[in-house]
Amino acid sequence: QVQLVESGGGLVQAGGSLRLSCAASGRTFSGYAMGWFRQAPGKERDIVAAISWNGGNTYYADSVKGRFAISRDNAKKMVYLQMNSLKPEDTAVYYCAADQHFEISRLRYDFWGQGTQVTVSS
Fold first, then answer.
1. For the segment 32-91, what is each residue's pLDDT rounded down to a tens digit?
2. How many beta carbons lie within 10 A of that of residue 94, not counting itself?
3. Higher pLDDT, 1 or 21
4. Residue-wise burial string across 49-88, b where 16 or more C-beta atoms lie within 10 A, e elsewhere
5. Which phi and psi angles does 13 have, rounded to 5°?
6. Among 68, 67, 51, which residue's Cα sits nearest to residue 104?
7. d(Cα 118, Cα 21) in Å, to the nearest integer?
8. How far apart, in whole angstroms, are the C-alpha atoms of residue 108 and residue 122?
9. What percent of the chain has pLDDT over 90?
10. Maximal CA-CA distance, the chain
């Protein structure tokens, strides 16, 4: 079992930056791949970025490539999403998720946080 708690969301102007954090509990955190997803009102929950258990593999959605960076610190049981050059279309609830395999599909992830709101004003 892995419990996840996101933080770091908020209101930011377009062009600004935010760093989201995801704190995990559970003894086997380092064995899990992690993903960040987002869901805007009326839309599906889509993947933003994913990182393998050791950070060796990463994935980014095309919409965030070059602007967002995912990282993890297994010793601290933390996953981060650095978001730069934010756009109004990045507005969504952001969720972190964990799975035993490096996955892109949200349907594969077993454990989810409660989400944190990111609002980007124009």
1. 999 999 999 999 999 999 999 999 999 999 999 999 999 999 999 999 999 999 999 999
2. 24
3. 21
4. bbbebeeeeebbbeebeeebbbebeeeebbbbbebeebee
5. -80, 155
6. 51
7. 12
8. 34
9. 90
10. 42
CB 35 within 8 A of CB 96: yes
Which residue's structure tokens are 């970025």? 49
- Tokens 């960076």, residue? 69
Please give the Cα distance from 90 to 80 (Å, whole number). Answer: 16
- Locate tokens 């600004």: which residue? 16
- What φ, ψ does residue 63 adopt, rounded to 5°? -70, -15
Residues 6+ apart with CB under 8 A from 87: 14, 120
- Both tokens assigned to 15: 């062009």
Tokens 């919409």, located at residue? 63
Rounded to an integer, what distance in angstroms lies between the CA atom of residue 35 and that of residue 33?
Answer: 7
Cα–Cα distance for residue pair 104/60, rounded to 1 Å: 9
